[in-house]
Every structure is written in structure tokens, then in C-alpha cells.
Protein: FAD-binding FR-type domain-containing protein
Organism: Candida verbasci
Amino acid sequence: MIKLVSIFLISVLASAVNAGHDGPKSFSSFDISMQACTKYIAKNMEVCPSAGKHSYSYDCYCHLDTGFGTISDCFVTGYENHTDIIEEFTKQCNFTLTEFYNKYDKIQQEFKKNHTHYYHPNKTAGSEGKSGSDKSGHGGSKSKRAEEGHGGNVAGKAAAGGGHGGTGEEEIKLSPVPLRLDYGDKFTPYKNAYRMYNNNFNISMDYGAILLGYWGCVLVIAMVFNFKNKMFPKLQLCPKFIQKHITIPATFKKYKASQFSFGLGGFFDCLIPTRLETISLVVFVLLTGFLSALHIHHVDNNPQYTTRNAELGHIIADRTGILSCFLIPLIILFGGRNNVLQFVTNWDYATFIMYHRWISRITILLVIVHAITFSVSDKATGKYKNRMQKPFMIWGTVACISGGFVLFQAMLFFRRKCYEVFLLIHIVLVVLFVVGGWYHLYDMGYQNFMWAAIAIWVFDRVVRILRICSFGVRKATISIVGDETLKVIVDKPKYWKSIPGGHAFVHFIKPTIFYQSHPFTFTTHYEDTDKIVFYAKVKNGATARVHKHLINCPGNTSTIRVLIEGPYGNPSGAGRQVKNIVYMAGGNGIPGIYSELVDVASKNVDRSIKLVWVIRHWKSLSWFMEELKELNKFQNVESSIYITKPNDYSGIECLNNNNSVSYSDSEEMEEKKIDEKDSASVHSTQISIISNVKNELSHMEFIEGRPNITSIVNDEIVNTDDSLAFVTCGAPMMVDELRYNVTNSIDKSKYKIEFHEQLQTWA
């Protein structure tokens, strides 16, 4: 149902975007030549009245000898009889090529007959000969034009034969005869300058399409591999050399899931993508820089601009501004939770968010370059002060400043300090950026890019609301387990299918936190398949407030209404692609790993599966005890649990009963016991509890201490008898360590080896 609604919404939004909005203007060879010719002619003497900026009095240029004779000579002589230009002109004038050349030849014969020479500005019109005088009686007419500038351009803006005086207008005299001008070296700067200026808009649109095409190619490659994995799961397309050096490793050393620190209090800490992702981003950055500068150069004696700064500043500003327009909808698309590309590529949300951040950074830098270079150009032409008072520039400034703040505010330091505050500010700034951009671009024909971005954002929000509404408001039983985790049990709708290894966003309906949504992995309840169970590690923010509420509840358990948005995510796919699987989880990373493991083990009895769970304390077993017992059903699953702090018995009483006990309660119990018994007796009780746990989980191996990941990976790869995959979720350092060792050992086996990271890092 959700997918059908999604398709309907996409269709409606696409129709809304395309309706009623003119797109960016493209400039044909005729448009460019018309500008160059009319500007060059006007520099000598006007022959036709102005019809406004980028508009022409075709009645004069087509039907009056004065206009036609002058402009046609420019096309034939100045543009070397360019066929496309002349054909477009004849369409505007509604006559054939034969009629064009007949009329042109007739006027040229008059020039030759009267020995007409090139027009010189210092000579009077009468000295040029009267053979081509306007037979309609318009010779010597006057026109008014207004001075209007945009980046150094001057365009006529008044009707012919005017008589309407006004501020900023000057009266000009029209030539009574056709002009025969010098289209040699003097005309060359006009041809080059107007080709550079106008064609830059065409080229920028093409280059923007190339940037989108680049990401289209990246996505298509991902789609091909996803299709291969689903249709031919055992086929290996990627050689181990590529896996070892490109597709699996982190960019530098072991830093991928864990943050890379530059010191300085963590202010400049960042997350670094995988090597393959980094390569794709570096190519994108280089391509963007290359396309931002390609075919931009200085034109000697440029008639549009008096200085090089004004000229190049304007051209670069137009280029970078248009390129940024193409990327803005892509940013919004990659940042959405309901991005359809997740389904066709099988990329997880964290991958799209990573690309979302990097494309955003490049886009904002393009916008900043756009603003700086336009300011340089306007300063050079003296138009800066006047232009900055116009509404489109005010809104452009709002968009640029908002984008700059987004670039700064989205740093990892701020995201990790207080994610909810970051998210709220981020949304406000992005809204200002998009709205400001829309107003800035409205009269230029580029506003449709903003409409596309808005449509994508609205689509994502509507689908999110539909997901929440379809799940409904549910009562959840929430308990504190192991003093470190919230266990959330919720009844799910009949249609709601759990995704092995998936996650969902949970809203706790309490006055101070109802607006927050947090992603948690889930499992199906071990006894009731109509229930799902979330395990949320207690941190700051919403989970801390729920924990504080539960502390004062009987048995540390309460019923709280929740909203669920999901499910999202995909299983790793290892169960379909390989024969042997090693699942390694750390701490609260176990629920997603467990749900996928159970799904694979129940559907594929011929698979050899190993589970390695790394926890700090014995008490952590309490919140996942029932699920661990369920693993005894599977003969093809071998499980190991590492306890890294085996001598820390705090909260171990949780394992003695089914009710959770908070850490403070356990401390009080221990103090009472110490008063009643000596410490040796207490220790004996703790050992007894651990012994009972081991008996209940006799199908699992308990190992005290940290796992030697290097040894585990090496042994599995060297001794495997068939294809092998490592699937992991847990502490970032553990995930990175596993990735690093799989990379180093991947070529030690002749069989197919894979690595799948299920850790979702987007904050």
C-alpha cells in the first residue's frame, strides 16, 4: 500500500513541478549572433528601434531595407553565411531562404552601384549613399532607449519613434539607410564575447546534466551489483585484488565507523568513507571543479565589460550558480528516509547520508563562489550597491548565508553534542536556503530546480506520516534491563513485516520528547510473532528521560504510548550469497544481527553459522537472555560470548530473575548483603549466578577477555571449506578492526570472501 501511494505521489509532484513554469532560456546560434550583430551595429549607429532586453523589432529587421540590409550583411559577412543562423532568421521573418538571398542581393547591388563604402561613425549618414534609403518613410526617425545593466550589458528599452520622455532615457537617431560595416577584426571581439557570455548558459546546463549523469552512472553500477546479488547470489564479479584494495578497506588505516580526530577538543573530528566511496567522491569533486572552469577564458577587447574582473567574475558566477541548481534536488533526495534508490541499489541509509553530506558541501562551496564572483563583477562595473537593494539579491544573500551556516553547523562535533538541536536548526537553515534560492531564481527560469527539491522533500515527509499513521498509536511495554538498556515491546499491525536486520524510528509519546524520533534495531518477539522488540541503549536525550521515568515505576516497567515509523533497512544478503557466515556483534548491536541470523538459520539449514557477541559485563546477558536461549533450536549455529570485564559483577542480580534491577538498586542489595555476610559469601553467590547462566546457555561458549579479532578472522578464512561472509554491528572500533583484518586476510583463501557492515552511522 505504501509503495502504491508513493508512486501516486511521485506522479502528482512531477506534474506539479512541470506545470506552469518556464525553464531556463537556452541560446541558439541565432540568438547569440543576433545579440552580437545588433550590439555591433548599435555601436556604429542604430538602424532599428529597441524592443526591450533580449527582444528585437523584427518588423524593422525583416521588412525595412534599413534593418534587413544591415543585419543580413552581418549574418552573411560577419558570420560567413552561417546556414543555421540565416534559416532561423527567415523563420522569424516568415520568408524562405530564396526570398532572403534575393532581397539581400538586391541591397548589395545597390551598395555596389553607388560605390558604398564601410560606415564610419564620424561620417554623416548622407555620405553613405541613399540607394538603400527606407522606402517606408521611416528614414531618419528617432527612438528613445533606457540604460539598463546586468553585469555590464547595456540594452535598449523604449519603443520606436517615441515622444515619451523619462528619467534615464536618451533620444537616439536611427540611420535612414542600411549600414555596410567592417566585419573584420573589429567585429571579432563581439562574436567571441557574446558567444562566451550566452553560450555559457547552454554549457552550464549541459555540465550540470553531466554532474547528475555521473551520479546516475554510480547508481547504475550499484544497481547492477544489487541485481547480480539477488538473481545470481553465488556469482563473484569483483576480483579479490579489487576487494582487498578498493571495495572493502577504509580509506586510511582503520578509520571508517570510528571518527577520525584532528585533536583540538574534537571540534574538527570527522567520519571518513570507505576507499571506494572516497574514490567516487574525489572523482566528483575533480569533475565539478573541472566543469566549473571549462571553456571560460578572457576575451580581448570585450565590448560587454571594461575589466577582466567584471568579465570573468560574471561568467564564473553564472557557471557555478547553474551547477549548484542541479545538485540541490539530489541533496534532498539522498537525505530522505524514503529514497526509492535505497531499494534499487541496496545501499543503506548511512551510505546515502554520507553522500548527502559531501554533495551538500560541494554545492554550498559552489554557491559561495557564485556569490563572491558576482560581487567582484558588480564591484568592477559599479553596480554592486544598486543591485544589492533588489529583492532577488536580498533573497540570494539569505540563501547563501543560510548555506554557509549549514556547512558549519553540520560538522560532526555539533551533530554528536546534541543531535536534536542540530536537526532542528538544520531544517530551519535548509528551508531558508531553498526558499531564498527560489525567490532569487524566480525571474531567471531556474526556479524549477527548487520546485523539484521541495517536491522531493514533501514526498518524503508525506510517506513518513503515512507510515506512522498506518502503524497507529500503540501502547508499548517498556522496561529497564541490565541497567543499561530499554526493552520496548510493541504489538505490530498484521500487514507490518519485520525486516531481518532492519530498524524503525520510535517516538515516545511524552510531553517533552514526543517530537523526537530515534532509530532502533528490532527483533520479533521470541514467543509472540505479532510483537516486535526494540532494545535501546540508554544515552542522553529521549532514552535518558524514559529511563528516569521508569526508575520510579514498580519493577522499572511502565506502559508508554509510542509511534513507529518503519520498517527501514535491508538484510546483508549474506545468507543467499555464501555457505558460511560469521556474525559478530558488540553490545547493543546484537538485536539486528540476531534477527538476521535467525532468519538465515531457519531458512537455510545447510548454512554454517557462527555468532560472536562481545559484551562488557555479565549483566548485559539479562536483557537478551530469552533470545539467546532460542538459539538452542538451531543445530547449524555455533555461538560464543566474550565478556571483556568478567570481574565486574555490578548488577549481576538481574540474571537471578526475570525482572530488571537498576544499578542503584543492585548497589543497595549488595550493601545489605555485605552487612549480613562477608565478602567471600557475596562472591560465592555471584559465581553461583554465573554458573547458573552458563548452564541455561549450555549451547554457547563463554570466553572471558577481549576477542582476538585478528586470530578469529585468520582462522575462519584459512580453514573455510566454502564461501564465507563476515557480518558485523557494534562498537565502531570493533567494526573497523574486523573490516581491517578481513581486508588483510581476504587473499588467504581460494573461496569467495565477503564483508558486510550493518552499523548505521548517520549522526
